[in-house]
């Protein structure tokens, strides 16, 4: 029960950050404070188009996103058993719906070449970030899974955190999204993941109580 309460509290925090960040991006119709500085710092440190960033950013798009999904299913199975894959698939479908609804409702500009280096200029909305939603859903399910403390589980956790960080940096350094847009999108995905886990665990506990009463 305490674990479920913590999940809901944490989901509420992530949801609030995601909504606040997204709303600020929509209202400003441009970069938020520190967005330009962070992108320029990353580009000066890593280069404006590091060779590894392109393939990573493509991994959230078909057809490679299906390979990413399979990899996420494997990692979450290692970490938490059968509930993990169910959570990944549910969260993935949920973020696809959220992405569709938000993109039909709001539009925020992506970084422009007048401010930072942009590898592939695009007129599509910077918020939500489809990449951030996908990575947040797939790898967030691994990060927030309830698991044992064996080395395999720890390796899956570290790998997933690393993928989220490297993925976010890739999109930012290529000028695909502002940091605020990426953070807001990741937070929305994390909130969805936590709600999905809450639902699965609540269902399991309810079933256990009904079985015990019988």
From TrEMBL:
- This protein's record includes keyword Transport: no
Q: Does the keyword Membrane apply?
A: yes
Q: Which domain of life is it from?
A: Bacteria
What residue ranges are annotated as transmembrane? 63-79, 86-106, 126-145, 157-176, 182-200
Q: Which residues form the Phosphatidic acid phosphatase type 2/haloperoxidase domain?
A: 121-197
Q: Which UniProt keywords apply?
A: Membrane, Transmembrane, Transmembrane helix
Annotated protein name in UniProt:
PAP2 superfamily protein
Q: Which organism is it from?
A: Mariniblastus fucicola
Question: Taxonomic lineage per UniProt?
Answer: Bacteria, Pseudomonadati, Planctomycetota, Planctomycetia, Pirellulales
């Amino acid at each position: 029960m305490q674990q479920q309460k913590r999940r809901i509290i944490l989901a509420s925090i992530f949801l609030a950050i995601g909504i606040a960040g997204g709303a600020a991006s929509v209202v400003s119709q441009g970069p938020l404070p520190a967005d330009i500085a962070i992108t320029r710092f990353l580009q000066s440190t890593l280069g404006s188009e590091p060779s590894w960033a392109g393939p990573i950013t493509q991994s959230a798009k078909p057809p490679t996103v299906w390979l990413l999904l399979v990899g996420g299913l494997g990692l979450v199975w290692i970490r938490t058993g059968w509930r993990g894959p169910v959570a990944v698939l549910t969260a993935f479908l949920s973020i696809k719906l959220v992405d569709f609804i938000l993109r039909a409702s709001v539009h925020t500009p992506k970084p422009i070449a007048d401010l930072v280096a942009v590898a592939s200029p695009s007129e599509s909305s910077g918020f939500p970030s489809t990449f951030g939603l996908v990575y947040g859903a797939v790898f967030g399910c691994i990060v927030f899974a309830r698991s044992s403390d064996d080395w395999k589980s720890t390796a899956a956790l570290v790998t997933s955190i690393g993928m989220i960080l490297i993925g976010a940096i890739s999109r930012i350094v290529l000028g695909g999204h502002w940091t605020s847009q990426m953070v807001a999108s990741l937070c929305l995905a994390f909130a969805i993941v936590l709600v999905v886990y809450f639902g699965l665990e609540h269902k399991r506990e309810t079933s256990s109580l009904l079985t015990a009463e019988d």
